[in-house]
Input
Amino acid sequence: MPSRKPLLPESARRTAAWCGVLLLVAGVAAVAVWLCVALKAAVSPVLLALLGTALLGPVHRWLTDHRVNRSLAAVLTCAALVAVVGGAGYVVVTALIDTGDQIVASLKDTAQWVIDHFDVGGAADPDDLADNLRGFVEKFGASAAGGLLTGLSLLATLVATAVLALLLTFFFLRDSHRAAHLAHVVAPRGTGDLVEAMGRRAFEAVQGFMRGTTFIALIDAVCITVGLLILRVPGAVGLGALVFVGAYIPYLGAFASGAVSVLVALADRGFAIALWALGVVLAVQVLEGHVLQPVIQSRTVQMHPAAILIALTAGASVAGLLGMLLAVPFCAAVFGVIGELRRGRAGLEGTDVG
Output
């Protein structure tokens, strides 16, 4: 009996199979994103706690290596986290409040300088722009607050999220040595080692990203602040604080904070000083891109700039600013898992060949 001829050629069947796999992966990812958005009140503290654990894990290990009880080490580490985050937040907010009016005035002068020197016809007056912006902020604040009760509810939600994230960080640090056992418990039979390896690699990627980004952000902020102080640009400390905060959003944060620094220098100190400020910003960015990132983050997952920008856009569309902050660490973890899977598959193929 002659064999039946396939309805579709081999290439079409392979394409259909890959399309089915892609649709399945996209469907699972869409459901996962929907669940995260629907349960954001519970998911956000967990993700923030994982970032805090990744950043402070070495401190906890150092304390336990010096024979400090794990619970006490976790308490001390969380206390250090509160002190550092609270102190950094106080410095950043204070610097921005002290120099905010000066920065806004310089930006308004920049707008007037552009109108005067480039003869922009029909341009709005900077004072009108400032008034419109102030009215927009007031309307946005009124709609966002929605009254005293809504404002108090928002504040209570933020406090509850922060407290829950801190408590989860404590438990994650204290019980981190049980993560490997938990991976073997929840994984299907025979896949415990693979799940443990993937989890370990993902956490190492996030850990490297958080530590490297924090260190790079500190160096960038110090260098740019020193440069702006030498150039006597007003609000140098506040602009440096803006650089530090913006560094946690790759590319976009550095571009925005650097542009604000150059515009303030242009408005207050003139075109020549603005060029020097631009040179300082570009020099720091070159130092970051060619020296700091390759050296500090050489052991973490390296992602293409296009992948980072896509991740930032997707994170912003899903969860706004919080999504932008979490998008790149999440992608680093995903790339780490993919790399571990590829290494495991290569090892299996090597064993089969042998």
